Each structure stands twice: as structure tokens, then as C-alpha cells.
Amino acid sequence: MNFTPEPGEFITMLTSEEITALYAAGRPRRWDRGATMFTEGDVSDWVLLLTSGRVKASSHTAVGSEVVLAVRGPGALLGEFAAIDRLPRSATVTALEPVEGIVVRDFPAYLQENGRVAVLLMRLITAKMRDSDRKRIEYGAFDTAGRVATRLVELAERYGEAVDGGVRVSLPLSQDELAGWTGASREAVSKALRSLRDRGLIETGRRRVIVHDMDGLRRRAH
């Protein structure tokens, strides 16, 4: 493994032997920023181990608006639901920046040969379901500013870089995408960001945020 995975992602759970076997079962592939890896509703059963770059998983409502379900980075396993149940893809996965990964066509065969990984995958899927439940609760319990603060805290903890005066996050999301991730309109997200700026919690620029008060942002997120 010649990359640094995000903490808690799928590949961090595997032994070196299991990683070697996974690489041997697949082949490397690259995508440009904006490329689509999976399309909601498609019938395919391969999985992708992300080795560099970040992607978003999203779905569209009946009226055509995009709902961002998650942002994933290096070490993440994508497409495992369809590989297991053989049903159509439940989400579209799009590259937020240039990405690389390992495509595994026969993932069930890999799981059969590596039984411990199947148990780990169950834990991973359970964690995703819990995260989905938590977000549904947020949508009903938090105002837009609270939901935006929650997502910024998540991004800062996962992708933040310490700088003078705070934590810098190079946002992979546009304001429209951030709106889709918080279940709000673009206008409401802009207002929420302005409110967080006015309170001195953050500073914003083009596709970047500097968190000046992480504890304050966490409090606003609850």
C-alpha cells in the first residue's frame, strides 16, 4: 500500500496479506475530476478501492435535486452494496478531484477466500447505516447553520491541515454540493456560512475554509 488512507476506512481494517490479495484481484484505474464511476440505477457488480482523491456519493430526488449522501477519500471501498445483493446501484459516485483506485470485478470471490474480511465488511456497512440514520436525525433536529457546522467539523477532522490561526480545509465541494449534503438550499447554506463567519468561527474562500474556533464550531453543530 503506497498511499495514506483516511482513518477508519475499509483498507485500514485489513492485514497486509489481505491487502495484497485484494490488489491481486483487481486492476488500477484513474478518473479525471468530474468523472462518474457509478451511476444510480445501473446494473454492475464491481467494487472500487479508492487509493487517491475524493469522491461524492449522491442521489437525485423525484424533482431532480441532488442529495449528497457522503464524501469518501483514500482507503474507502465503494460499490459494495451492488456487489453483494446484485441489485442496481443505489447512488451515483462522482470524482471531486482526480482519483485513482483498484477495480475488483469479482468481489464475492475475494470475500469467500478471505472470510475475516467479510465480517469486517459487515461492520463497515453497519457503520454506514448508522451514519445515514444520524444524518436523518440531523435534518429534523438541526437548523441549516447547525447542519453546515456539522459537515464542516467532519471535513476539518478528516481533511484539515493545521495553519496559523486554525485548521484549513480545502473543500472538495461547491456550495451547491454542500447544500445537497446538508439538505438545504444554496441560499440557506450561503446564509449559514455568513452567520458562522460573523461569529468568528470560520473564514471562507474559493473551495476552502479555515476553521478558527473548532470548539465553537462543534458547539454550533449541536
Automatic annotation (TrEMBL):
GO CC list: cytosol
Domain annotation Cyclic nucleotide-binding: ranges: 10-100
The HTH crp-type domain, residue ranges: 142-215
PROSITE patterns: CNMP_BINDING_3, HTH_CRP_2
Domain of life: Bacteria
Keywords: DNA-binding, Transcription, Transcription regulation
Gene Ontology MF term list: DNA binding; DNA-binding transcription factor activity
A Pfam family this chain is assigned to: HTH_Crp_2
InterPro entries according to UniProt: cNMP-bd_dom, cNMP-bd_dom_sf, Env_Response_Regulators, HTH_CRP, RmlC-like_jellyroll, WH-like_DNA-bd_sf, WH_DNA-bd_sf
Protein name: CRP-like cAMP-binding protein
